[in-house]
Amino acid sequence: MATEAHGSESSLVFHPMDQFKVAPLFGDGPVHWYTITNVTLWMAISVIGVIFLLVVGSRGRAIVPSKGQSIAELTYGFVYKMIEDVTGKDAVKYFPYVMTLFIFIVFSNMLGLLPLSFTTTSHIAVTGVLALLVFLFVTILGFAKNGTKFLALFWVSSAPLAVRPLLAVIELISYFVRPVSHSIRLAGNMMAGHAVIKVFAGFAAIAAISPVSVLAISAMYGLEILVAFIQAYVFTILTCVYLKDALHPVH
Amino acid sequence: MATETHGAEAAHGAAEAGMPQLDFSTFPNQIFWLLVTLVVIYFVLSKIALPRISTVLAERSGTIMNDISAAEELKLKAKEAEAAYNAALAEAKAQAQQIANETRAAIQADLDAATAKADAEISAKAAESEKAIAEIRDGALESVKDVAKDTAKELVAAMGSSADARSITAAVTARMKG
Questions:
Q1: Which residues of chain A have a CB within 8 Å of the CB of B16?
Q2: Could you say which residues from 129 to 158 on chain A have a Cβ atom under 8 Å away from some Cβ of chain B?
């Protein structure tokens, strides 16, 4: 529930960031960890959306699928094929985890595009946790599966021996930067698009500019739908790539 | 844990812009609800949605496979039927050819036999006719001699003298040879 910031007064007032405020849903209190906030509301809505798409949609179990079942199967097939192609057939057992990430992100992104909604994935706290979960999962899995051989990921055996220590340092840094880029990419994209739309909306208060503003918002909105899906896709495919590194660490 | 990791990189931006994203007091709340959400989605997916969809997909591919193999079988049967039909057709054609040939040969044989018989009859009849003609011719010669004898006798009688039969016959025979 974004606080709508209308520049209805004489001067233009922009509050592009107000839509990202985390606020309690009931009353005005401090935000404790257990407080029911707009974050809770919109995450719950995304859970309901997931249930509606994948559980209600597939309830027919028909050989010839209905529309809803087709969409559910397409979503399933999309992620399944992604993990199979990128990570390999042996990674199919991690499919539910990857699917959870993808479906949560794509629903959060898309729901965030509804007017007056709150975009949970525009928060670094959310994407950071997602990225860290992937990072920890992949790292622990890598060591559990390969033991110390997992460190071969940093030891580029195809490079000349003299360069290898230097490359190892670079690889190590890039490995630890992964969760940072992984999370900031998603949150940044979400936040920037929404903020830009809000800025355009602020200009709509001036009568002369408002048609342009409406056009610009429409165009941005189309772009944001694309971005919302692509960022979910990118996050998921990077997860698959990291998973591949954990399962097959040889460079 | 996330709070600590991102605290460092975000610290400088927090003051200036007033980004709600960097309001760390809301982090525990978001993280808590995020984890709840993820766990709920994970269980919904892994317990209900994904097994169901994968079953449906497996069933569908099974059905499609069955249909394809059934179609393949039917196609094979159709080919067999076609081959059998072709074989039967070829056999029938060959039989027809044979029957035609046999019939033609039989007719030819009958025809040859009839022709030969007719030829034989014709030549027999021809020979018979020739014989009859020869007989007739001989008979005619005989008659001519008789007529000549009689005529000669009458002539001689008419002239007033009588001649004996023997001399007349001798004279006629001599004349006819000459």
A1: none
A2: 129-130, 132-133
Shortest CA distance to B21 belongs to which of A103, A93, A192? A192
Q: What ipTM was estimated for this complex?
A: 0.87
Considering only CB atoms, which chain A residues are within 8 Å of B29? 22, 31-35, 37, 39
Q: What is the 3-state secondary structure (H, E, C) of B111-137?
A: HHHHHHHHHHHHHHHHHHHHHHHHHHH
A101 in Cβ contact with A40 (< 8 Å): no
* A102 has a chain B CB within 8 A of its CB: no
- Which tens digits make up the pLDDT trace of B35-72? 999 999 999 999 999 999 999 999 999 999 999 999 99
Name every chain A residue with its beta carbon within 8 A of the beta carbon of B37.
43-44, 46-47, 104
Q: How many residues can be counted in chain B?
A: 178
Interval B144-169 mean pLDDT:
80
For residue A24, report the phi and psi dihedrals to the nearest 5 degrees: -65, 145
B100 touches chain A (CB under 8 A): no
Residue type, B38: L
* Most distant pair of Cα atoms in chain B: their distance: 195
Q: What does the mean pLDDT of chain A come to?
A: 89
| Confidence (pLDDT) at B178 | 62
Q: Which domain holds residue B114?
A: 2-177
CA distances from B102 to B39, B98, B108, B115 (A): 92, 6, 10, 19
Residues 42-81 of A with CB under 8 A from B: 43-44, 46-47, 50-51, 54-55, 58, 61-63, 65, 69, 72-73, 76-77
Instruction: Determine contact, residues A240/A87, Cβ cutoff 8 Å.
Output: yes
The domain tally of chain B equals 1
Q: Is A99 on the interface with B (CB under 8 A)?
A: yes
**What is residue A37's DSSP assignment?**
B
Tokens of B35: 């984890």
Residues near B94 by Cβ (< 8 Å), separated by ≥ 6? Answer: none
Q: How far apart are CA A111 and CA A232, in angstroms?
A: 13
